[in-house]
From TrEMBL:
InterPro entries: Methyltransf_12 (IPR013217), SAM-dependent_MTases_sf (IPR029063)
A Pfam family reported for this protein in Swiss-Prot or TrEMBL: Methyltransf_12
Matching CDD domains: AdoMet_MTases
Biological process (GO), any one: methylation
Protein name: Class I SAM-dependent methyltransferase
Domain (Methyltransferase type) ranges: 76-173
Entry keywords, A to Z: Methyltransferase, Transferase
Biased composition (Basic and acidic residues): 1-20
Residue segments, region Disordered: 1-38
Length: 314
């Protein structure tokens, strides 16, 4: 299984994300009425999002470094193309990092990234479906990171229990779920009806609910993550949110990311949008239009991700 892959699935991403990853939480599905995600096709957006969100992830990793003992083995469950897996290897120089994902071409990208960064001697990949593939780890993980991968598993409560069982005694599970939808533009754009991103958020919420309901073995669950971690037999240890604040005027990389994200939403949700909103998105995506995200001066990225931690009893 391949999650948002550290991002919002498309709104923001995965999955980047999603993911992209917004489910009020940044999912950028942009898949419209269908709920099948082509993670391999989304790889460039997933990488771009994770790279753009690296300052936020570094904050989270710094927090984890203060919260957990120096880990020997870190598993990134639902790693996607490995941007964050490599950040873990950099942040924890004494650890071996295993990028775990169900999409082999994304793991190829992860290995190539680790090679480029000189991390290959401490970097492995593991292909297979979560959570069972974690049985193939060489030993229990001291730190298991799951960034918006859990919500792609039908029975999240059972999956959390399985994650906990793959931890070493005293090991930590860090779960990135929740946060706030990303914002890229003012509420009133000066074109179209104000509140465009809020209406896109509503469509993504509907998409997310449908996606969850269609998963094999789907179980509806109140998303009280501390309670679910405790029910999984773990000792809940904390919750912290991290902010990405890239103010206007945006640089070219940020604009490209915003354009790619809105483009996926336009493609996926176009027929569910009011005609005025479709027209607004078309203008936002037209590089020749002064009102487009390629040219307008008020493009920004503001997003919050939330991480919950719990430890396996020693």
């Amino acid at each position: 299984m391949a999650h948002d892959h550290h991002g919002e699935h498309t709104q923001g991403q995965g999955h980047e994300e999603d993911h992209g990853h917004k489910h009020g939480h940044g999912h950028g599905h942009g898949q419209g009425h269908g709920t099948d995600l082509d993670w391999n096709e989304m790889a460039p957006l997933l990488e771009a999002q994770a790279e753009l969100f690296a300052p936020l992830y570094r904050q989270a990793l710094s927090w984890l470094a203060d919260e957990v003992a120096e880990p020997g083995l870190i598993a990134d469950a639902g790693s996607g193309p490995g941007v964050l897996s490599c950040l873990f290897a950099e942040a924890f120089p004494g650890a071996r990092v295993v990028a775990v994902d169900g999409t082999a071409p994304l793991l190829d990208r992860a290995r190539a990234r680790a090679d480029r960064l000189g991390l290959a001697d401490r970097f492995d990949t593991l292909a297979g479906e979560l959570p069972d593939v974690l049985d193939q780890l060489s030993k229990p993980a001291d730190l298991l990171w799951a960034s918006r991968s859990l919500h792609h598993l039908g029975d999240q409560r059972a999956a959390l229990t399985a994650f906990g069982q793959r931890l070493a005694p005293g090991g930590t599970l860090a779960l990135l779920e929740g946060g706030l939808p990303s914002r890229f533009l003012p509420r009133d754009l000066g074109i179209g009806r104000p509140g465009l991103q809020a209406r896109l958020d509503a469509l993504e919420e509907e998409w997310f609910t449908r996606m969850r309901s269609e998963l094999p073995g789907s179980v509806a669950e109140t998303e009280d993550w501390p309670a679910l971690l405790t029910a999984a037999g773990l000792r809940y240890t904390g919750t912290r949110s991290f902010l990405l604040d890239l103010p206007a005027p945006a640089d070219d990389r940020t604009r490209a990311y915003v354009a790619a994200t809105l483009g996926r939403l336009r493609e996926g949700f176009g027929d569910a949008l009011a005609a005025e909103d479709r027209d607004t998105l078309d203008r936002l995506l037209d590089p020749a239009d002064p009102a487009s995200v390629h040219r307008r001066p008020d493009v920004f990225v503001l997003s919050a991700y939330t991480v919950h931690t719990a430890a396996r009893p020693s």
